[in-house]
Write the structure tokens for this entry.
Amino acid sequence: MTNNKNLLAFVEEYKALCKADNVVWIDGSEEQLEALRAQAVANGDIVKLNEELLPGCYIARSNPNDVARVEGRTFICSKNKDDVTPINNWMETSEAYKLLNAIYDGCMKGRTMYVVPYSMGPVGSKFSKVGIELTDSIYVVLNMAIMTRVGKAVLDVLGEDGEFIKGIHSYAELDAEKRYIAHFPEDNVIMSINSNYGGNVLLGKKCFALRIASWLGKNEGWMAEHMLILGIEKPNGEINYVTGAFPSACGKTNLAMLIPPKQYLDKGYKTWCVGDDIAWIRVGEDGRLWAINPENGFFGVAPGTSMKSNPNALLSTKKNTIFTNVVHDLDTNTVWWEGMGTPAPKNAIDWKGNKWDESMVDADGKKIKGAHPNSRFTAPTANCPCLSSEFEAPNGVPLTAIIFGGRRAKTAPLVYQAKDWNNGVFVGSIMASETTAAAVGAVGVVRRDPMAMRPFIGYNCGDYFNHWLEMGKKIPNKPLIFNVNWFRTDDEGHFIWPGFGDNLRVLDWIISRCEGKVDARETAIGYVPYAEDINIDGLEDITVDTIEELLTVDKEMWLKEADGIEEFYKELGDRVPEELYNQLATLKANLNK
Ligand code: GTP
Ligand code: SPV
Ligand code: MN
């Protein structure tokens, strides 16, 4: 299928090391994919769902020891330790190859090795990049065929001497002790072994499009970010595009597909999804920032997705979708999860493969969840009812605003605006959020997650901050930078802000700020709205006083926050730019005024 010598040598090398029985090249044809689906069904890896209710859909369960990204076993490998900061695990390059090659040795005995050529970004666009994933998992092949553009067309673009990112994946024995997700940015190589789940194994996503691409972006003068891309259309047809960086399971997919509240719909507002997880951002000829979504599918969190919270996401999963670790309703042969908004099935199997119903409790009397909190759907972007007409645009969309945000019960106000680009970089760098089920580990612990990229920066975090500052110098028409927090809680722990579609009310303020149409109050941390400028028309239970409360900036809390930021910067080592320390000093001075 290809004459690319490097590619042929790469395939031969790993076929030999992994001792795969044979090699199958993925050409992207429906016939080949359909045959693989049939094979995976026959193997028991996936189950075909009700063809009438969910055409082309399948359910899969991962090993219970393998349900989320494993940050503890994810490594950035480089020659020099200083090129990686302590928030990521580091391994010396040659040591890492030695360790990993030993585990790959013979891992595909008796198995087929699939060669998946894929493009991140529209095939052939000059902003797109090609990857090759070698894998022994049909589940991975089928997911990659949804999440990216795969097959022959990609090889044609690659040609005889085109460059590609090398990815080698084997689920091996799913041995959690020998699980490694290793990146070699200096060599354009990704090695993943002993997992078969999500961001650990769909190598185009976090491994390539963020960890490797962030490094490429630094060297080539662009940015790879953990961001959704959303278009907001006004009644007059004008569309403003914004990107939003929120940590894993903190609302990107939801914001990317939001449906405007009735008051806005009635006026003629519309919203368009360009991307829900990753943005590749470049400076355009017009001096603005332009963003593309390099993916071709959504790997979305299932629990909580309902016709009420996110109808566009739910509708996106109605055909040609793979569900992982959700409840299998045996009566209808469909799927269910907590927060779907329909009654739990009576005759069902939970994510672990056990017979399950809603009334079941564990030894501590706690309800047993049917779906894993990080259960997911893999759905083609083409299914999304609000997919932007610019989704395939080779140059992407121009940005009006960049929004950072996290899950903070207190401290961070509903929204504030950074004073300028450098201050915005500071605002992104100090992001913190409560951890979620998207990664293995404790949930609900506040941790620093700069630009929502903590687990995804492929190099030294100080250098990454510096790259953001440097980019600012190259953008004549900069987007404005904001921070939002949908997750502030009251004393009983309830979210105060209704969130979801109503987040458009905050985006409305953000766009008005970008247009210079609304005033704001200057505070120690940045510009905060006047409460009456957030449109609460039609919101029950929310008054101007509630908004006032959501917008408070508590100086005591922020002084503590400033100490935490300083600690974090110090942890990152000596490459944190001076400018950010200056920003921190200004913040402290403002708070002490
Ligand atoms: P990844 O795919 O892991 O990167 O996650 P994501 O950032 O796309 O998060 P997603 O939109 O899937 O939302 C994760 C969880 O946050 C779901 O349980 C949502 O119901 C919840 N959520 C999203 N938006 C809001 C909001 O505005 N308010 C509240 N309270 N919850 C929200
Ligand atoms: C995330 O954790 O941010 C995800 C899911 O989008 S995964 O693909 O597993 O990284
Ligand atoms: Mn994500």
In short: The mean pLDDT is 97. Residues 555-572 form the longest helix (18 residues).
